[in-house]
Amino acid sequence: MSTRRSRRAPLGAALAVVAALALAACGSGSGGSTANDAAATPDESAEIVIGSTNEPTGLVRNVGGSSGVSQTMTRNVFEGLTSVDVDGTVIPTLAESWDVSSDGLTYTFHLQPDVTFHDGTPLTADDVVWSISEAIGPESKSARKSDLLVIQQATAVDDATVQLDLSRPSQGLTFYLASVTVVKNGDKELTSDNGTGPYRFVEWVQGDHLTIEKFDGYWGEPAQNAGVTFRFFQDTTALNNALLTGDLDLVIAEDSPDQLVQFEDNPDFTITEGTSTTKQLWAFNDREAPFSDVRVRQALYKAIDREAILSAVWDGYGQVIGSMVPPTDPWFVDQADVHAYDPDAAEALLTEAGVTGLEISVDYIPDDTTEAILALLTKNLAAVGVTLTPNPIDDATWYQKVYTDHDFQTTLMGHVNPRDVLWYANPDFYWGYDNPQVQEWVTQADQAATEEEQVDLLTQVNETIGEEAASAWLYLNPQIRVARADISGFPVDQVTESFYVADIVRES
Where does the signal sequence lie (predicted)? Predict the structure, then answer.
């Protein structure tokens, strides 16, 4: 596998790349790579303050388009029948166990005993049925809705048992169910009362912070700290200044190697570099001309010097990719060279498609990274006769204009979700890629009899969307975190949407 890296020397002599494997405690058992100091004595009264640039856009359930609420509260405050652990594996959570019928069409989930919501109300099968039914209901805008529609009916067999009847077998059902937060029957929003996780939601002050506190009545393994506050920043300089001055304990993700210089060779801080699933892409609205022409998409992709963009943004960290699939997925195929930088070939394809004087608008949420990408993208495209017109917008506008209304030509966006290659089988998703063969392969993969068959089919999906340049994938982010030296237990890798915080401790 080619990593496509031109790496500089590692971060400095004092860079700590923490590779210790630790069992991350949770109610149902957990494993994965975490930053850990076995000699530390945790201060269970400590409140941890975490800096992030990924703020939720709202607390309404079953709305896609933003990972901020999943990052802060999924698995920490709100749980599903299953969870995706810090190493990417699916683990039982509110479901203690489950049985699958011989034909694969009926799943029977047995709930954990003695689970209560944060207001003390006992969890019952009716709550689970409501939560799942809403996620697949007509008003749901969940990004996983199309995957979950394999569920024909959810039934409460008794208070502790839920039965799901499927239209066909589904290899990925337990993975998809991890995205369904279970709340009290009838609730449509996330509140301080209707979570079941190791933390209780306290408050969200939009534009500033979101706070959660340890829930003493948690059914499983308790959190190892007293609570967590996520503080939100739009400016990464301000974010890192807050860490330097002691206002933060941990930064979830650094977006530039330039930000690391101030922490190198400083014994007060630990820097970790892990694996991510964050793909930076230039997405086309494939349902509209000229992007409905595969030759135009291929031409635009070949016009981009992705190595130069990665170098400008990450100075050798990260990885150039040629499709939506990260190397951590079993159906990864290295496609970085399929549409390698070739301006002459790009011009030839545009000529073949009969396109001249092309002007393209790009909607984007401005920050230092997207501005750097945009500058190089504009230069690359100008070299093949394409004019790029930037249109900076805020998060809320992006969600409505691009994600919901599909009222755009192109957009720059980072996608953090695992297994999001499957969204290329949904022609109603915001980028509008519509290939019936890909849709059939994804359907066949989900009902495959074996994991090997599933992998083979999704590999074909990966290769096809890459060849057809369904989007222009630029690079895969590295996952670089910086923490104060007395902070440990946080996940090093980011291969799931949730940032699990129950194992984070401060040395006393």
Answer: 1-24
- C-alpha dihedral over 316, 308, 325, 338, to 10 degrees? -130
Residue 140 in any domain: the answer is yes
Span 83-117, pLDDT tens digits = 999 888 999 999 999 999 999 999 999 999 999 99
Kindly state whether residue 14 falls inside one of the protein's structural domains.
no
Q: What are phi and psi of 410, to 5 degrees?
A: -140, 165
Asked if residue 29 is part of any domain, the answer here is: no
Could you give the CA distance from residue 270 to residue 34 in angstroms, rounded to a whole number?
Answer: 13
Range of the domain at 160: 79-182
- Is 232:55 a contact under the CB 8 Å cutoff? yes
Cα–Cα distance list, 114 to 117, 156, 343 (Å) = 10, 17, 63
Q: CB–CB of 500/50 below 8 Å?
A: no
DSSP 420: G
Of 142, 157, 182, which one is at a domain's C-terminal end?
182
In sign, the C-alpha dihedral spanning 446, 451, 453, 457 is positive
11-39 pLDDT, tens per residue?
Answer: 333 333 333 323 233 333 444 567 764 45
Q: In what order do the strands lie in the sheet with 151-158?
A: 95-100, 106-111, 161-166, 151-158
Residue 501 is part of a domain; what is its CATH number? Answer: 3.40.190.10
pLDDT in tens, 138-191: 988 887 888 899 999 999 999 999 999 999 999 999 999 999 999 999 999 999
CA 120, 121, 126: angle at the middle one, nearest 5?
155
242 and 302 assigned to the same domain: no
- CATH code of the domain containing 381: 3.10.105.10
Do 358 and 385 form a contact (C-beta atoms < 8 A)?
A: yes
- pTM for this one? 0.78
The pair of three-digit structure tokens given for residue 344, joined into one six-digit string = 């002459």
